[in-house]
Amino acid sequence: MCLRSRVFILIFACSPLAALGVACGLDETGLFGDASLDVTTGTEGGLVDVAPYDVLNDVPLPPSCNNVDLSCLGFGAGLPDGWSPYVTSFDGGACPPGDFEGTPWVTNTRLANGSCACTCTPSGTWSCPSTAAMSTGITGCGPSAGVAVGQCQGQGGFHIQIVDASASGTVTCGAEAGPAAPLSDPVTLCSFGCEAGTAAFCGAPAGSRCIVTDGIQPCPGTGLTAHYVGASASPSCAACSCTTDSPPACAATAYVFHGYNGGFYHPNNSCDDGSVNNQNSMDTITLDGSCQNVGGFDSYEVQFGAPPQATCTAGAGSGDAGLASPKTVCCN
Question: How far apart are CA 107 and CA 119, in angstroms?
């Protein structure tokens, strides 16, 4: 018995898994591309390329009469062992009238869009530094120096710049694949009693006269097209991965202080906002990492906002949807 084919369906582009082949020689239409069976049991990218089917095939085929002339399939001398004739409706429709009984099966199993999406849960926190790398100057921003966050800097100028405000800390990310929601197309296998006779079977439309066996098998004889059905879709998701994002920058604000006295300038190198004697004033500047011209100031203080939230980047989710209790259906 060959091993079952699993077609890997990628939720996000740019994944190397897109290059995975389809095993057992099946193309995406569910037909053999040639007469050979390609069997692969290795792994690629951490995923099992082909997994063996349950050899028990715990959903049996319904009995169908083998004691009929099947010359329309090229088997006038009888079918090979293990194969039985069925009329097949590949759109899941009703069986022909008379001595036929239909059972539902599925084919073309696949994952719905959004299946197996990778989600990440961060744990840990970022913290903002206690020292900020700052640069000030009159005609521009000069060399940077570390200053204590939240403390007055008795240094003036016209330009101000925060050079580095990177957060730090330890953050990890837990990865979890979302549910595998399968899709499939319905198929009806119509078994029949011997009273239906050769005329009823061979009188069915071309392409619906089929022989069926358990598992994934090459078609016997010549001129038959192989299809694959199962009792249900068997979906699964591969493990996904998450990457911890780099520490972000902390939001930074500078308070710049000016000195005035009765309309005349006087130094204000102590970060006096004038709330007591109204002789001084203060401006609030959002620092954006560039060298900003904020007008003349005599002193300043820099502060950070709340630490940014920890974040993660999710990897590409992937999975497959195979056939449970597979059957090979060969038709002409």
Answer: 30
| DSSP H helical ranges for the chain | 197-202
**pLDDT of res. 51:** 33
What does the CA dihedral 42, 43, 49, 51 come to, rounded to 10 degrees? 70
DSSP letter at 325 equals S
3-state secondary structure of 72: helix
Percentage, residues of the chain above pLDDT 90: 60
CB-CB contact of 199 with 71 (8 Å): no
Single-letter code of the amino acid located at 320: D
Q: Which tokens in the block code for residue 78? A: 């009888």
The span from the CA of 332 to the CA of 317, in Å, is 39
The residue written with tokens 């899941």 in the block is: 92
Read off the DSSP letter of residue 23: G
Q: What are phi and psi of 293, to 5 degrees?
A: -90, 110
The helices-and-strands tally (H runs, E runs) of the chain is: 1, 23
Length, in residues, of the chain: 332
pLDDT in tens, 54-87: 434 579 999 998 887 788 888 876 788 999 999 9
Quickly tell me which residue has 């006295």 as its tokens: 261
In DSSP terms, which residues pair with 162 in a beta bridge?
134
Domain limits, the chain: 8-117+176-242+315-331, 133-164+252-304
Do 128 and 251 form a contact (C-beta atoms < 8 A)? Answer: no
The overall average pLDDT reported for the chain is 81
What SS3 state is found at 109? strand
DSSP class of residue 18 equals G
Handedness of CA 11, 16, 21, 27 (dihedral sign): positive
pLDDT at 332: 87
Do residues 331 and 207 make contact, with C-beta atoms less than 8 angstroms apart? yes
